[in-house]
């Protein structure tokens, strides 16, 4: 799954964007003919306490693959974030509904549009320093939510933590060696929803647990 926006769901508000196009020429920016979204990743406020890490950036209209993000999973994803207080609803300048990140930041493991349905290992390695920079430069970060094993492992690599040190546990929150908390969820995809591997209730509960983690005294 990728963190996406669509015509049905617009993200707005004061957000800090990172332009990585000079580092990786395959990264497309808003307004380009190859762009997949009006937003670029990473995005969200620099004071974020939650960082959401997705495997790759795939727009719902770009793929019919059931393992990818689509309108159904988009609804589950954003509604759960709103319910847990990580997004708020507002109206944009055109009067259309918009969602504003509330101390939540989004990043994709792959910063450029993937060259295949599954991110290539070489792309994961090449883009890992972007994730490392995010983790090192968010001063208020308390929890990282990884969507899928790939995002979990990429986060461990960015932190210099061996994969065997912190295992992926769907629906659970674990501690990293430095105290940072890492929450795991399966990818929000049509396949996982239809096969019962993941449901809106379980994803919402995980986000509520993350909310308690963030709101509790350090």
Architecture blueprint of SSEs:
Elements: E1 50-54, H1 71-83, E2 87-91, E3 97-101, E4 104-108, H2 121-137, E5 143-147, H3 149-159, E6 173-175, E7 181-185, H4 190-194, H5 200-215
Parallel strand pairs: 1-4, 1-5, 5-7
Antiparallel strand pairs: 2-3, 6-7
Structural notes for this entry:
- The strands form two sheets. A five-stranded mixed sheet has the order 4-1-5-7-6, sandwiched between helices.
- It has five helices and seven strands; from the N terminus they run βαβββαβαββαα.
- The protein is about 30% helix and about 15% strand.
- By secondary structure, it is an alpha/beta fold.
- The model is unreliable at about 1-15, about 20-40 and about 60-70 (pLDDT under 50).
- The protein is globular, with a radius of gyration of 16 Å.
- Helix 1 (about 70-85) packs parallel to helix 5 and helix 2 (about 120-135) packs across helix 3.
Briefly, what is this?
The protein has 218 residues and is an alpha/beta fold. The protein has helices spanning 71-83, 121-137, 149-159, 190-194, 200-215, and strands at residues 50-54, 87-91, 97-101, 104-108, 143-147, 173-175, 181-185.
Throw out a few tags for this protein.
single chain; globular; five-stranded mixed beta sheet; alpha/beta
